[in-house]
Amino acid sequence: MSVASVKAHFEALNLNIPILETAENTATVALAAAAHGVEPGRIAKTLAFELHDRRVVLLVARGDARIDNAKFKTALGKGKMLNPDVVADITGHPVGGVCPFGLAQAMPIYLDESLQAFDEVLPAAGSVNSAVRVSVSLLARITQGQWVDVCRPPADPG
Q1: Could you tell me if 133 and 144 are in contact, meaning their C-beta atoms sit under 8 angstroms apart?
Q2: How many whole angstroms separate alpha carbon 59 and alpha carbon 148?
Q3: Residue 76, φ and ψ in degrees, nearest 5
Q4: How far is CA 21 from CA 2, 9, 69, 122, 140, in A?
Q5: Do residues 51 and 35 make contact, with C-beta atoms less than 8 angstroms apart?
Q6: How far apart are CA 7 and CA 23, in angstroms?
């Protein structure tokens, strides 16, 4: 009941943030953007990494950003994305619904500076068909995330 853990997290913080559930699968950036009628960059994707020191961390970035390996290594050290088979066990959320709220265990959360291009973003909310609309400043406050610069800017469209 991953959406339930997100709701409980918001309630514990006295936040009234509606969870947007769709009939469509929103497990990818493209699907989520289409379902919510926003540009792909506004989808805040949450990626799980294991760092060289065995710590698991979450990185939230704009949906159309790509990890820059050199920047990642400079900011966080060596790391690799978690195998999808273990993501749900560690985060409490299924792949495609991973978000920085209502986690199964506490872990460091990093917010890529790419998110700051937007006033509002839509991270998942614990399932493959849910999301929330939050301001970037509220996202930072809720997650107590640390800002990092680890992504390449999206390619210019021409």
Answers
A1: no
A2: 9
A3: -125, -5
A4: 13, 17, 33, 12, 22
A5: no
A6: 19
Full-prediction pTM beyond 0.85? Answer: yes
Question: Closest by alpha carbon to 107, among 158, 61, 48, 37?
Answer: 48
Joined tokens for residue 144: 């107590």
Tell me the helices (H) and strands (E) count for the chain, helix number first. 5, 11
d(C-alpha 132, C-alpha 44), whole Å: 10
| C-alpha to C-alpha distances, 2 to 27, 68, 95, 118, nearest whole angstrom | 14, 30, 11, 26
Amino acid (1-letter code) at residue 140: A
If residue 156 lies in a helix (H) or strand (E), which one and from where to where? none
Structure token digits, residue 149: 């610069």
Task: Record the tokens describing residue 2, joined without a space.
Answer: 């991953």
- Class of 2-152 per CATH? alpha beta
What tens digit of pLDDT does each residue of 18-69 get?
Answer: 999 999 999 999 999 999 999 999 999 999 999 999 999 999 999 999 999 9
